[in-house]
Write a structure and sequence with these properties.
The complex is a heterodimer.
Chain A: E1 3-10, E2 13-20, H1 25-31, E3 50-53, E4 56-59, E5 72-74, H2 76-79, H3 87-94, H4 104-117, H5 123-129, H6 140-155
Helix pairs in contact in A: 3-6
Chain B: E1 2-5, H1 9-15, E2 21-24, H2 30-35, E3 43-46, E4 56-59, E5 62-66, H3 71-76, H4 78-83, H5 85-93, H6 97-100, H7 105-110, H8 119-124, E6 128-133, E7 136-141, E8 146-148, E9 151-152, E10 159-166, E11 173-179, E12 190-199, E13 202-211, E14 218-219, H9 221-225, H10 234-247, H11 258-277
Parallel strand pairs in B: 1-3, 2-3
Antiparallel strand pairs in B: 4-5, 5-10, 6-7, 6-10, 8-9, 11-12, 12-13, 13-14
Helix pairs in contact in B: 10-11
Chain lengths: ~160, ~290
Amino acid sequence: MSRYEVTFRVNGEERRASVRGEATLLRTLRELGHLDVKTSCEAGDCGACAVLLDGEAVNACLVLAAQADGCEIVTVRGIGTEGNLHPIQRQIVEKGGVQCGFCTPGIVVAAKALLDRNPAPSPEEIRRGLAGNLCRCTGYQKLFEAIAAAAQEMRG
Amino acid sequence: MDYVRAASLEEALAAALRPGAAFVAGGTNLVPDILFGRKKPVLAVDISRLRELRFIEERGGRLRIGALATVTDLLESDRVREAAPPLHESAVEFAGPLVRNRATVGGNLLDASPAADLAPPLLAQDGEAELLSAEGPRTLPLASFFLGYRKTTIRPGELLTAVSLRSLGPNDRSAYQKLQLRRAMAISVVSVAAALWMEGGRCAEAGIGMGAVAPVPYRSGAAEAELRGRVVGEAEAEAAAAAARREARAIDDVRASARYRERMCEVLVRRLLRRTLGLPSPARAH
C-alpha cells in the first residue's frame, strides 16, 4: 500500500505525516493529536470537523490528507485558546451557546469564516453561514446571538 | 488507493489512462463514497490545483465556467448573477458554506445525481459540456450528457473541463425554485429552472430544466415547445405546466412520492412562468 509524505502547517506549526491515498484530512489531523477537530458524520453533513484550509472553511472529512500537502490549516485552537479566547468563543460562553459542546469547534470555525467574509452579517446571513453545522442539542438560537454579539464587538 | 497530484492537464489525462483511475477535485462526493465503500478507485488523480480549470468568463454570448469553479465562486460572481440568475439561485440553495467552498461545477454534474442542483439551471440555459481526453476535445449539449441514473456519456480517462451556457440579457426572463425539506443542506425534492429569451414581447427561445423528477436531470422539451416562438400569457404558461407534468418520470423515495413530484412539476413550471411574466399568483385549486 503506497504512502505519501505530506507536510502542512496547523495553527502555525509544521506537521508531517505519512498517509495512505484514501486517508482523510480529518483522520490525519486527529492521528496527529488535533483532537479539537471532531469526528461525527464523515460525510460532509454536520460540520463538526470544520477547519480553515488556506483561509476557507471546509469539512476536513471531505478532503484527502494528500490534497492538503503544503496548505495552511487552522483549527478551533488556532482561533483562540483557553487563556486567550477569540470574541466568537467568549460570546458563545457568555451567551450559553454550549450544551454538549461537540459541535462547538466546528461552529467557531464556520463563524470565523463567516465574519472574515462579512463583518456585519444580518441574522439571516448568520443562519445561512452556519447552515452546514448541525447542533443535535438544537442550541442554535444562543449561538446565533453569540455570533451577532461577537461581530458587533469585533467591529468596535 | 494510490494518489497522484496532477501539475498539468497533460499529466492529469496521462494518469487517468490507468484502469480504475478517478479524478478528484473538491471531494465532496467522492471522498465519502470511498470512505463508505460505495466507490473503490485504484488511483485518485487530484486535479484540484489545475488553476486553468477555475474561471468564469464571457465568450460569444455564452458564459463559460471552468469545471473547477466552486459553488462559492458561482455564488460570488456578478457575471453569473447577471447572465444566469437561476444558476446563481441554485448556488444560494446549494448545501451549506463548508460544502460550497469545496464542491465544484464539474463534480456536481459528473456525480450525475437526478437531483444535481446545478443541472436544471445549466440545462435551461442551453448548457454545453466541454470534454477533453488524450484523443482531443469534444463539446456536447448537457441535454445529452446524462445517460441514465448516475451515468453520463463521459468516457474513461476523459475530463470535463468546462461548461458553458447561453447568457440571459436584461430583457430576458428567468426563474428558479428548489423544493426541499429544509432550507439548507437538503437534497432537492423537485427543482425547476426556467429561461425565456424575449424578442419584442415574443418568447424567441425557451429552456426549462427539471431536477429530481426522472432518472436524470433533463430539459422539458414538451414544456419548451409550448413557449417557443409565442407571446407567452396565461394559456401558454398553463399548457407548458401541463406538458411538464406529463413528461416527468418521478419515483417514490424517502423525500417524496412520485405522485407529489409529478404534481409539483406542474405547479412549479406554472409558478415560475407566471413569476417571470409578472402574472398574479393563481387562486389555489380546491
